[in-house]
Specification:
195 residues; 53% helix
Length: 195
């Protein structure tokens, strides 16, 4: 049996990394050694290059290259071995974030993704919240992407993109406690794993 591919997405400051980490214990109990957590970008050499460039097109290509390597070396072998992957970010982030910078190149951003390497996603969990809230959650000086205006564009783009997908849930983390968010996510995951 193939493993599942679960994607956690959302604007910066929406709580995706917090819940990604919080899921390790309950999913570890539920699935044992049949779950692996990854975060994109994954490889240090790509992360370093992404941080060094201000060129949005170059960043988009570096994110996609990192993702192709991650799919080939980690995600696909795990899924074929029956291991569930829970990913903090995915190709969706690449399309949404770079799409805010270069909206006229949306089709190109979709085209450069290594779709031929990607397994079918079983669930996309989108965390969103009022951009004012996410801006206050971010550390000062974090990558410069913390203006309310920018976060609003990112949130709106995520909502447009993800709402067209099947097998997704959208959770407003600005009105829920961490425990309530974790409970909603855990309930949805139990539905998937216990079917």
């Amino acid at each position: 049996m193939l493993g599942k591919y679960i994607i956690i997405e959302g604007q910066d400051g929406a709580g995706k990394s917090t819940i990604h980490k919080a899921l390790k214990k309950p999913l570890g109990i539920l699935l044992g050694d049949k779950v692996q957590f990854v975060k994109e970008p994954y490889y240090k050499q790509y992360i370093d290059l992404i941080k060094k460039t201000d060129n949005v097109t170059e960043k988009a290509l570096l994110f996609a290259s990192d993702r192709a390597k991650l799919m080939e070396e980690i995600i696909n072998p795990a899924i074929f071995a029956g291991i569930t992957i829970v990913s903090d970010r995915s190709y969706i982030s690449n399309i949404v974030y770079q799409g805010v910078f270069i909206p006229d190149l949306f089709d190109w951003l979709c085209y450069i993704q290594p779709i031929h390497l990607m397994p079918n996603k079983d669930l996309v969990i989108l965390f969103t919240c009022d951009p004012e809230i996410s801006a206050t959650r971010l550390k000062k000086g974090w990558d410069g992407y913390q203006s309310v205006e920018f976060l609003t564009k990112v949130r709106d783009s995520y909502l447009r993109y993800v709402s067209k997908m099947t097998d997704h849930i959208i959770i407003d983390t600005g009105v829920l406690t961490k425990k309530e968010v974790l409970d909603q996510v855990s309930k949805k995951l139990e539905e998937i794993f216990l079917c």
